């Protein structure tokens, strides 16, 4: 998922049978002895104005933060990232290919309609349908759901998808290959259901505050573009009695300093990020407000390999080698992030990576290699390289871009012209291929290496670098059908080595999640590295 997720209660090994599994929801459980505030209204900074609130038409973190409150999938996560029941009260499989989900009879939409198995069938067919144009269509193909790939390519009808309503509250899913972590994949935003009747009646306007119908713990009350989105409890939510908050407001604040100041003034309870340059001061002066948690996310730059000169591996490597990742991680961001020489965060389940040779060099040695590669590619004083560097509007992204552009200029004589665009335009530019080099951040949609590595597959809907390598794709297939954890890890290791060799992206650092949080906010998850925060689990403690 575009950033702009440690342990799952699911099998990742070679074992095949998962017996009937049942989970209760976690909801807001207020500890004994805790006195609640008379006012239960939460205000969250959310980074930017959202692209949409349609789960099949978004790809960013800001959108998912809100949709997680408005819509509920088959399963949710608790504060530690473990799976808990959502619409599904239990599920079973015998072979990790055929999955049966039993849905709650009391699950309802915010208009009072029952949530049915057919709603998930409709939604997933909609996700795969080329007419929807979902940026996450390839995610469904990653699940190996039967016929998903052919539907996405327009070769088969959406109604051939391997999802079937056995009856009103029983959903059958057929995969083409065993995927032991399939249930964990259904947590993702793109897999959350939409109300067919409402979508078909209102078309693209179904997401307005007047017409939005969801099945989550909250419902959309107000949406003032570029100002705020307000949610209130959904009285029809099956577990509404455990929802404590009476209002949740999301603010699209792009400037991290402005967001910090609003937090310090008591106007915001949870920030989206923190201004990098203020982090150390805030840790020292207000330690109770600072929350730093694990985060399965990578920060990197993408090359548009479909355009010259970035179709030249030498140019790509030269620019990557010239980045001083230690300076970026320790001094430009400096909140505990680690320099990255591979794509997938090292804390990801089952990952075994051999660091590339260039990571073992000193920065001076890397720069020397970069200079030689750029010269071999035909660039130098007589033919200087110049290109545009795209990033979405953010002071933190700007500071990183300025620093990296300075490194390129100083060590290689390269000129990077910085271009910032607001979130929607930035995403559209990447989807249309209208960029030279672009800032990117990817956060795991589930805790397994394929959630990172698969987006570099040829034809993936979010493969914006247009990277194409048949051997790379073959290794992904090998990982999926691996007979053991060791074989799967070896395939992923090979994938990472190919990315380091071909360099379609420049890994820069692996994230931590650092933000300001009101110490009176209860239920805030500090051990969920996917950063899946459900407002239904939160409450405000009395002063």
Structure description:
The structure is a single chain. The chain is 28% helix and 19% strand. By secondary structure, the chain is of the alpha+beta class. A 6-stranded mixed sheet has the order 14-18-13-17-15-16. Strands 1-5-6-8-7 form a 5-stranded antiparallel sheet, with helices on one face. The protein has a 4-stranded mixed sheet with strand order 2-11-10-9, covered by helices on one side. The two termini are 37 Å apart.
Query: Strands of the largest sheet, in order across it?
Result: 14-18-13-17-15-16
Radius of gyration: 23 Å
Q: Largest sheet at a glance?
A: 6 strands, mixed
Tally the helices: what do you get? 16
Quickly give the structural class.
Answer: alpha+beta
For the residues shown, what is the average pLDDT?
Answer: 93
Q: Which percent range fits the helix content? A: 25-40%
Q: State the shape.
A: globular
Number of strands: 21
Instruction: Give the low-pLDDT segments.
Output: 5-20
Q: How far apart, in Å, are the first and last alpha carbons? A: 37 Å
Proportion of beta-strand residues? 15-25%
Task: Record the SSE blueprint.
Blueprint: E1 18-22, E2 41-45, H1 61-70, E3 75-77, E4 83-85, E5 88-93, E6 98-103, H2 117-128, H3 137-142, H4 148-152, E7 163-167, E8 170-174, H5 182-185, H6 196-202, E9 218-224, E10 228-233, E11 247-251, H7 256-264, H8 279-285, E12 290-293, E13 297-303, H9 313-321, H10 325-333, E14 338-339, H11 363-376, E15 386-392, H12 395-412, E16 415-421, H13 423-432, E17 437-443, H14 450-453, H15 470-480, H16 485-502, E18 505-510, E19 513-516, E20 521-522, E21 539-540
Parallel strand pairs: 2-11, 15-16, 15-17
Antiparallel strand pairs: 1-5, 3-4, 5-6, 6-8, 7-8, 9-10, 10-11, 12-19, 13-17, 13-18, 14-18, 20-21
Helix pairs in contact: 9-11, 15-16
């Amino acid at each position: 998922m575009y950033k702009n997720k440690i342990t799952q209660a699911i099998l990742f090994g070679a074992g095949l049978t998962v017996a009937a599994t049942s989970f209760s929801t976690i909801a807001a459980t207020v500890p004994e002895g805790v006195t609640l505030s008379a006012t239960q209204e939460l205000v969250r900074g959310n980074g930017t104005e959202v692209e949409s609130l349609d789960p099949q038409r978004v790809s960013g973190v800001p959108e998912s933060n809100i949709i997680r409150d408005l819509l509920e999938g088959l399963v949710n996560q608790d504060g530690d990232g473990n799976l808990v029941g959502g619409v599904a009260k239990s599920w079973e499989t015998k072979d990790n290919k055929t999955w049966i989900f039993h849905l709650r009879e009391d699950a309802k939409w915010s208009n009072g309609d029952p949530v049915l198995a057919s709603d998930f069938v409709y939604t997933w067919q909609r996700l795969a349908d080329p007419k929807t144009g979902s940026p996450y269509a390839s995610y469904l193909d990653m699940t190996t759901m039967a016929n998903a790939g052919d539907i996405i390519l327009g070769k088969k009808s959406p109604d051939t998808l391997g999802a079937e309503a056995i009856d009103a509250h029983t959903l059958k899913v057929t995969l083409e290959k065993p995927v032991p972590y399939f249930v964990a994949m259904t947590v993702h935003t793109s897999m959350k259901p939409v109300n067919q009747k409402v979508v078909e009646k209102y078309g693209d306007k179904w997401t307005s505050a007047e017409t939005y119908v969801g099945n989550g713990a909250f419902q959309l009350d107000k949406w003032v573009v570029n100002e705020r989105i307000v949610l209130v409890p959904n009285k029809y939510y099956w577990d509404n009695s455990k929802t404590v908050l009476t209002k949740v407001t999301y603010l699209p604040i792009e400037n991290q300093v402005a967001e910090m100041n609003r937090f310090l003034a008591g106007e915001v309870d949870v920030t989206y990020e923190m201004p990098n340059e203020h982090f150390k001061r805030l840790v020292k002066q207000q330690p109770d407000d600072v929350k730093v948690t694990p985060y399965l996310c990578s920060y990197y730059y993408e090359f548009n390999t479909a355009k010259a000169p970035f179709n030249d591996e030498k140019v790509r490597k030269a620019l990557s080698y010239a980045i001083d990742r230690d300076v970026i991680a320790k001094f430009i961001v400096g909140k505990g992030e680690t320099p990255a020489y591979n794509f997938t965060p090292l804390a990801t389940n089952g990952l075994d990576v051999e660091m590339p040779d260039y990571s073992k060099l000193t920065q001076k040695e890397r720069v020397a290699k970069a200079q030689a590669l750029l010269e071999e590619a035909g660039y130098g004083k007589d033919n200087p390289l110049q290109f545009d560097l795209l990033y979405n509007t953010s002071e933190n992204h700007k500071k990183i871009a300025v620093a990296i552009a300075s490194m390129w200029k100083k060590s290689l004589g390269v000129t990077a012209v910085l271009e910032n665009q607001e979130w929607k335009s930035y995403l559209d530019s990447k989807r249309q291929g209208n960029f030279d080099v672009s800032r990117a951040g990817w956060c795991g949609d589930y805790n397994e290496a394929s959630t990172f590595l698969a987006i570099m597959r040829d034809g993936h809907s979010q493969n914006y670098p247009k990277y194409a390598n048949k051997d790379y794709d073959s290794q992904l297939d090998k990982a999926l059908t691996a007979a053991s954890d060791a074989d799967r890890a070896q395939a992923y290791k090979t994938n990472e080595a190919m990315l380091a060799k071909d360099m379609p992206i420049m890994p820069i650092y692996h994230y931590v999640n650092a933000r300001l949080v009101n110490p009176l906010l209860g239920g805030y998850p500090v051990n969920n590295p996917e950063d899946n925060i459900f407002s239904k689990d939160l409450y405000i403690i009395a002063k």
